[in-house]
Write a structure and sequence with these properties.
This protein is mainly β. The chain contains no helices and ten strands. Helix content is 0%, strand content 40%.
Length: 174
């Protein structure tokens, strides 16, 4: 598949880059409802089409829980889509795991579909932005030492039919 655009000889083939990242708080007391909301502000640059979507995910100390901050033109704060500031907020659950939460992945995509994805399992986040690997927040809960670190379990599952006749449209729904 080949495409061309005579009116625009420049094609956007470069993914957005992260310029900076800062948390509104790095010490969160889960026992205080007003303290559980935190914001992450980032600056993002793109060369031609403009920033489209992004996220930064933080992982709990055990790795069992994650929280992600989602960025889009709807979270735009200042500048423009070629060089702008974006802020996203999350509210942590009072039963979130206590301890140091660190960045586990970064995903950036522009309006042309160019994307940059880095995960700590496979990449050095500092290659995207020096210091990003050390961006973190600490959770504690003086009011309760309990944290929910166990994922839900599936008790049972059942299909309404174990045989499907694909030649009959009405039978294709189970």
């Amino acid at each position: 598949f080949r495409s061309s655009n005579a009116s625009s000889p420049s094609a956007d083939t470069t993914a957005p880059t992260l310029g900076s990242a800062a948390l509104s708080s790095t010490a969160i007391d889960l026992g205080k409802p007003e303290a559980r909301r935190i914001a992450l502000t980032v600056t993002i640059q793109d060369d031609l089409s403009g920033f489209g979507y992004g996220s930064i995910t933080f992982r709990s100390p055990s790795g069992a829980q994650s929280q992600f901050f989602s960025f889009s033109p709807f979270t735009f704060r200042s500048g423009n889509l070629l060089n702008g500031s974006f802020t996203a907020s999350i509210e942590l659950n009072p039963y979130a795991e206590q301890g140091l939460w660190t960045v586990s992945s970064v995903n950036l995509q522009d309006k042309a579909g160019n994307s940059r994805f880095l995960d700590t399992l496979y990449s050095n986040l500092n290659s995207l932005l020096p210091g990003l690997a050390s961006l973190s927040f600490q959770t504690s809960n003086a009011a309760s030492p309990f944290a929910d670190t166990t994922a839900p379990t599936l008790g049972s599952a059942a299909l309404s039919s174990t045989a499907i006749d694909l030649s009959k449209p009405e039978a294709r729904r189970i």
